[in-house]
Amino acid sequence: MASQTASAPGKVILLGEHAVVYGKPALAIAIDLRFRCKIAPSDSVRINGLEIDRAKHPYTSHILSEHWKGGIEIETSSAIPSGSGLGSSAALCASLNAAMMAYRGESDEETCARRSFDAELKAQGSASPVDTSASVHGHGIAVNLEGGTPIWDISHGKRRWSISHIDIPRMTLVIGHTGISAPTGPLVAKVRRYYEHSNFAKDMVNEIGSLTEDAAKALSSGDRVGLGSMMTENHKLLSILGVSSRELDKLVQAALPYSFGAKLTGAGGGGSMVALTDRPDKVCEAIERHGGRPYIVSSGQPGAMVEK
Quick check: is 43 catalytic? Predict the structure, then answer.
């Protein structure tokens, strides 16, 4: 076999980011923006024609050091903006692991998810398996929430996350990208410092957890009004935790008049927000007027898959 290509989707966290690091539930869906990796054996180790630099390619470097022997040529392409809060690094890990496994004739979704989470954890220093599980599995997932169809458990140290499949109705969402790259690791560390030294922060994390449980019920019943309201409330709580930004708040406020709800998605600090809406064109116009780049995306997307 000369080469192997696989792709994986980006993701949107509907509710629960940051709180999920502390064992609280989260809801995430795969979206129709994908990352592709093409691999082929080689005499050297190169990515997009250049020698791999561990500092510039921490995710790829970790995956190769753990799961590949010898040279390799990697070609990547992505529709997911980097540092956007849409899971670009998770989709990279998922697609690269899927391509490498397929090259060796392996096909195991759970193994791919575990390897992808491990790469994110090593690269970022602290992470939850939300992004990587959503990218590998696709469709919709719940973390630490009863009622779904269990697919795997992932542990790190004293922390354990239970990942389950959840049925997601067809939904239209608009993403507003601020254009500001916001690495996940420092923001996770910022919340951790706040959480470890403040009971108020712990209360906010617990409140996000309760809100996410209620949102799962709204999601399963198709209550977009209720779900949107809870998304907006989640954004307020994340702002209190200090992970929003002026740019994100501006895009959320711009989208709300035409949406059921809106919030930041991902680590925050920059990156993107997401709006649940039945008026996507209006939301796009509002986001553009306020300096963001809009993307209309839909739910129900497949996870990591081998491409012919």
Answer: no
